[in-house]
Protein 1
Amino acid sequence: MRLTPFSLSTGSSFMYSRRLKKKTFGTAPALRASAISRRPSSRIFPSFSRNGLDLTIVITLLWPPVPGKSLIVAKPRLFPGVGRLGWRPLRRLFLLLPVGTGLRRARFLSTTSPDGNTTFTGLRRSARTQRRASTSQDWTTGSNGRMVNHTPRAALHFVFKVGNRFQTARFYRDVLGMKVLRHEEFEEGCKASCNGPYDGRWSKTMVGFGPEDDHFVVELTYNYGIGDYKLGNDFLGITLASSQAVSNAKKLQWPLTEVAEGIFETEAPGGYKFYLQNCNLPQSDPVLKVTLTVSDLQKSLNYWSNLLGMKIYEKDEKKQRALLGYADNQCKLELQGIKGVVDHAAAFGRIAFSCPQKELPGLEDLMKRENQKILTPLVSLDTPGKATVQVVILADPDGHEICFVGDEAFRELSKMDPEGSKLLDDAMAADKSDEWFAKHNKPKASG
């Protein structure tokens, strides 16, 4: 759901909205709280003073449960001088609305101008559901007690380095049932090390169950001449819900191990683990979570939640496990605590998120202030014939690579290419490296 800001003010009053005149209960089409929060009109409300308290409150009725209907209540100043009470008692009042009133609890932030006026900023649910809204904000309380601003961010993809494109393509297309969203070939290494610490020719293939706008996908990077990569203990697996994938694996005799009732473990070429739930959930994206290891769960939660603004959905201190995400309907990040050091070896991956491009410099500055590691400062990445995107590459306390990309340009870049699957097949057919190494009885290099 998208959250839309609305305002409450002390020290000034609100003009009675034309929309309220037309609709007694404020159910006009495309109702927005921000549209009814207007500046004062002394002609309409001559008794309002700068010391008065005037509120425009948007509340949602719990009963009867009519989806998308809101009741708009205009509350003028009732008592002279009430504004001198300050905003803290009033904020406490709204946060502690009695359950018997049938009102939802509201959340408010406040800002005070130099002249003493205070503005409350609250959040309400919008009737429009969007996965990546461009204007919404979501404030919650972080684990350290301070307010965290969840800007419109989205989980995009996880990056794997692969050595055998033929078997890899077979696994993702034929076993998991994913589609090739786009394929690109590059003559030299990526400025943001997307393909790892390699400077030679490489390719990138995006695969998923649907477009990256509303699906979490996988990025497969292939470095020509490298046949395998040593695995570490940093990546534990990707979990997805697809009875079709389970059926495909059994039909193709792809190795499956039932680790729990209805949950099967399998491996992609290269040793990357996947967990397949033998069910189909009522959501568009079957990919549920990516699981990474951490050496200190609390330290990692401080980083991912308090610095990067992720919401903590689940936390189990005993099992040293936590589940985080930017939205209910997005792929989640699961952190699993382990004893010892997190080893990334050579097969280390990278998780990517999008955010508004204008936030990238601020994100970089935040990491500098917090003395956190920045692997690649803000840089522009060019893709021939496609959009240029800006990225910042970070590393969490355990060295997990995190890419934040500007959302606006990435939406253009990530559009599905109907020729993607053919481009991958053509590239694999033109790649004669396996034949060359076999002919000369030499193994490919290890990453």
Protein 2
Amino acid sequence: MASRSALRCANLLRATVTRSGRKSTVDGLYISGVKLHKFQGVHSNSMVACNLVKNSFKTYTTTALVAAQLSAISPLGLLGNVDVRSLSNGPATSLTEAGGEEDDEQNCPPSSDVIKDVQDEMLKSGSSGHIFAVVHIGGRQFKITINDTIVINRIDADTGERIHIEKVLMVGGENFSVIGTPLVARDLARIEATVVEKTKSPKVIVFKKKRRKGYKRTQGHRQDITVLRINSIHVQPELLSLSTAGNSS
């Protein structure tokens, strides 16, 4: 009985030391051979409050440091690449656009030189025959050169008749191109063609059916077509400057 009482008293004493040590000591310390871990109870609340104070102090310190750095910067330095001239009524809205316009003016030759070069190229291409055009005829557009054969919808012209194609969208050669707005000037490019044949296209089968209704219809269709051969493409370079002036005005 005496030994049991002594053992029970020793256990109670050890438990008391452990509880009191957990409440009143810091993490990592050893008391009576027992390792203590964290604050518990009331002391844990004081730890949380202490951490909040530390975090608030760090935030305040960081904000004050950033404000001090910004105040040390010159206000003119914050402008960066902003063009001060954009505040006035100048023609350019930024330094980049102003520089780009100056470069374009320096790199682009005068308009008179461009027209002269195009006129020379038109003469060379017209004499050599290496010239093409984009025309609109029969509801479609075609890119044509000399001696090409095109198939269009039926037009009112007899076989062997020479016709003049008026709707020219573009004319060009190896080193030049003249684009209309939307059509090229009437006399700038003159294209002549010959009606080779007037016939019909191969038959197209049109089949209709409605299921479970006993409805079926089969019909064939052949479109009336006209075959043209391009005889010549004549250009008049001297009219280029007049047509350009008219479009710009």
